[in-house]
Amino acid sequence: MSRSVLALERDLFFAVKIRDTLRHLALETIVVRDLAAFSRALSGNSSISGQPREQLALAIVNISTPGVAWDEAIRQARQYGLPVLAFGPHVDVEARARALEAGAQRVVSNAKLSSSLTSLVQDLLTSPERVDLTTGDEEH
């Protein structure tokens, strides 16, 4: 059974970037576009006859998608015990604070996600309880 990452992302550019990058880490990526699909994917992670259907290892959530309850997605992922990497525009300090409040371990800018996705994912998979309490990234 392979490990998977669940990504809540509507933007095709970021969805492809996430999928292609994680493939090099031997991680399958499940990309969903709304909260309902995210919830279904999480509940699909539950076991049948004691055998997990798939092993979700991490959730990645775009916090700049209008009309999507991304903070609820973060809370749900945390309820399932998944670490959460959230990303969005570096100027949206309010969304960053909401993401951390909802339970995200890391919140980074779009640029940071693009330039450092591999190391961010590896870091969260090895130290899932690390919480990013800063208000900004080194890179914007």
Condensed summary:
The chain is 41% helix and 23% strand. The protein has five helices and seven strands, in the order E-H-E-H-E-E-E-H-E-H-E-H. Helix 1 (12-23) packs parallel to helix 5 (110-126) and helix 2 (35-43) packs parallel to helix 3 (70-79).
Let me know the CATH homologous superfamily: Response regulator
Spatially, the strands of the biggest sheet line up as 2-1-5-6-7
Distance between the termini: 36 Å
Low confidence ranges: 46-53, 133-140
The shape is globular
Question: What descriptive keywords fit this protein?
Answer:
alpha/beta; Rossmann fold; 7 strands; five-stranded parallel β-sheet; two-stranded antiparallel sheet; 140 residues
Question: Could you characterize what this model shows?
Answer:
- The protein has 140 residues and is α/β, with parallel strands linked by helices.
- It has helices spanning 12-23, 35-43, 70-79, 93-102, 110-126; strands at residues 3-8, 28-32, 47-48, 51-52, 55-62, 84-88, 106-109.
- The strands form 2 sheets. A 5-stranded parallel beta sheet has the order 2-1-5-6-7, sandwiched between helices. A two-stranded antiparallel sheet has the order 3-4.
- The longest helix has 17 residues, at 110-126.
SSE blueprint:
Blueprint: E1 3-8, H1 12-23, E2 28-32, H2 35-43, E3 47-48, E4 51-52, E5 55-62, H3 70-79, E6 84-88, H4 93-102, E7 106-109, H5 110-126
Parallel strand pairs: 1-2, 1-5, 5-6, 6-7
Antiparallel strand pairs: 3-4
Helix pairs in contact: 1-5, 2-3
